Amino acid sequence: MNMPDVAGKKVLAAVSNRGVEQDELKKPVEHLRQAGAEVVIAAPEAGQVKSLVGDWDLGEVFEASETLAAVNEQDFDLLLIPGGTLNADNLRLDADAQRIAKSFAGSGRPIASICHGPWLLVETGLAKGKTLTSYTSIRTDVVNAGGTWKDERVFRCPANGFVLITSRNPGDLDAFNSAIAAELGS
Predict the structure, then answer these.
(1) SS (H, E, C) 28-71
(2) Are 6 and 179 in contact (CB under 8 A)?
(3) What whole-number distance in Å separates Cα of residue 155 and Cα of residue 129?
(4) CA angle, 105 then 32 then 61, to 5°
(5) Active-site residue, from 31, 92, 116, 130
(6) Angle (nearest 5°) at CA 92 between 10 and 115
(7) For residue 77, what is the DSSP state?
(8) Among 159, 78, 145, which residue's Cα sits nearest to residue 112?
(9) Residue 21 backbone dihedrals phi, psi, to 5 degrees
């Protein structure tokens, strides 16, 4: 597979310190770094990010090098919002995560979110007028927030002045990762 060159691009992965779905953080970060992007993981607290597998089993521990409060989101080209029920539920209530998502959308920079990650977009009003996919259990939340939900592996929506790339679950990661790299490489 031909991977777009994304050298010089910076990606901000916004997560909580516990509960991010392991592969929804690990695989996009690895994919983007292999393609030449710089990826920074930011969480409410710098240090350990404890992942889960299937929202239940303990997964790998990752390192958040920045806090959501201190990170300068203007320095980044794309916002990555991984899923995991606990992660997404915490992020949607985090004022700094909300500020960062609104900043990306307001400046026209792309956002990529998978699984339960779109809860942050629902909470901030950014799902309104967008077409997206997600884990099926938050379909009603997306629709009630004014979005249109689709059951597709990956969906790219350019409406409302910013590109939103979404996928349903870890089984869609290949398509999700390819869509993100293509967006950054364009």
Answers:
(1) HHHHHHHCCCEEEEEECCCEEEEEEECCCEEEEEEEECEECCCC
(2) no
(3) 14
(4) 95
(5) 116
(6) 70
(7) S
(8) 78
(9) -70, 120
Annotated active-site residue in 12, 64, 115, 181: 115
Question: Among candidates 16, 127, 99, 131, which has minimal Cα distance to 62?
Answer: 16
Please indicate whether residue 157 is annotated as part of the active site. Answer: no
Q: For this structure, is 31 an active site residue?
A: no
Q: What is the pLDDT along the chain (186 residues), one digit of tens a residue?
A: 567 889 999 999 999 999 999 999 999 999 999 999 999 999 999 999 999 999 999 999 999 999 999 999 999 999 999 999 999 999 999 999 999 999 999 999 999 999 999 999 999 999 999 999 999 999 999 999 999 999 999 999 999 999 999 999 999 999 999 999 999 998
Handedness of CA 170, 172, 174, 180 (dihedral sign): negative
CA dihedral of residues 173, 156, 7, 71 (deg, nearest 10): -90
**Residues written for the chain:** 186
| Reported pTM | 0.98
CA atoms within 13 A of residue 4's CA, in its CB half-sphere: 15
Closest CA to 114 of 27, 186, 51: 27
